[in-house]
């Protein structure tokens, strides 16, 4: 069997995690075996353990990598000079781009997180709740500043997040829409509904 090939952009552990995400998405976390992952990576199963401790460690790595990317981006948006609408447009754009570029990993973070072991499960859920509260705060500020219609901030955020998660369906359908047109169209459609 061959060695795991890292790239300039990814370490061996990251290469394994990316391959694991594709398997977890296709089969689910519980149904995926380390032997299947080793076959996909092109190494003996025992060789995987030189780079990772367990399948659970891979799930943890995938879920928190994605969660941290969202959190870091949100902090940048919160500290930007844009108004609330611009901030939400930036957030929607980021959600779309990450769904398109890291689909398998985002899918795993959205669906397979429930298999995280404690204390990671609680930490992950707390991070998600905090993220949603911070999004709601942006909407609330926009309502206060009369940039956004006087609606329920949690409903606005739920609508945005649900619509972007709906890209899972688009991803499977392979409709002939460019990524740029998809991003621009979704931002327009989603923000038109709440701009004052």
Overview of this protein structure:
- By secondary structure, the protein is mostly helical.
- It folds into two domains: 53 residues, Homeodomain-like (Arc Repressor Mutant, subunit A), CATH 1.10.10; 134 residues, Orthogonal Bundle (Tetracycline Repressor, domain 2).
- 70% of the residues lie in helices and 0% in strands.
- It is built from ten helices and no strands.
- Helix 4 packs parallel to helix 7 and helix 5 packs across helix 6.
- The longest helix is centred in the C-terminal third of the chain and has 25 residues.
- It is elongated and about 60 Å long.
- The N and C termini lie far apart (60 Å).
- The relative contact order is 0.12.
Could you write a compact summary of the structure shown?
The chain is mostly helical. 70% of the residues lie in helices and 0% in strands. The protein has helices spanning 12-27, 34-41, 45-48, 55-78, 84-101, 103-111, 120-144, 153-165, 167-173, 179-192.
In the predicted model, the low-confidence regions spanning at least 5 consecutive residues are none
Find the CATH superfamily of the largest domain.
Answer: Tetracycline Repressor, domain 2
**Tally of helical runs:** 10
Helix fraction bin: over 70%
CATH topology of the largest domain: Tetracycline Repressor, domain 2
Q: What is the C-level CATH assignment of the largest domain?
A: Mainly Alpha
State the total count of DSSP E strands. Answer: 0
Look at the structure and give the mean pLDDT. 90
Report how far apart the termini are. Answer: 60 Å
Describe the largest sheet: none
In N-to-C order, the SSE pattern is HHHHHHHHHH
């Amino acid at each position: 069997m061959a060695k795991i090939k890292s790239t300039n952009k990814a370490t061996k552990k990251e290469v394994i995690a990316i391959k694991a995400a594709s398997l977890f998405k296709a089969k689910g976390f519980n149904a995926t075996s380390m032997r299947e992952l080793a076959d996909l990576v092109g190494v003996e199963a025992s060789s995987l353990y030189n780079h990772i401790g367990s399948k659970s460690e891979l799930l943890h790595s995938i879920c928190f990598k994605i969660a941290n990317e969202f959190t870091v981006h949100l902090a940048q948006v919160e500290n930007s000079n844009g108004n609330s609408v611009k901030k939400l447009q930036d957030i929607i754009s980021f959600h779309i781009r990450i769904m398109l570029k890291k689909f398998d990993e985002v899918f795993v973070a959205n669906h397979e997180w429930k298999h995280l072991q404690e204390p990671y499960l609680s930490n992950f859920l707390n991070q998600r709740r905090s993220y949603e509260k911070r999004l709601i705060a942006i909407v609330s500020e926009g309502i206060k500043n009369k940039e956004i219609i006087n609606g329920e901030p949690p409903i606005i955020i739920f609508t945005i997040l649900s619509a972007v998660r709906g890209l899972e369906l688009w991803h499977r359908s392979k409709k002939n829409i460019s990524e740029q047109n998809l991003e621009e169209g979704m931002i327009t459609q989603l923000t038109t509904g709440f701009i004052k």
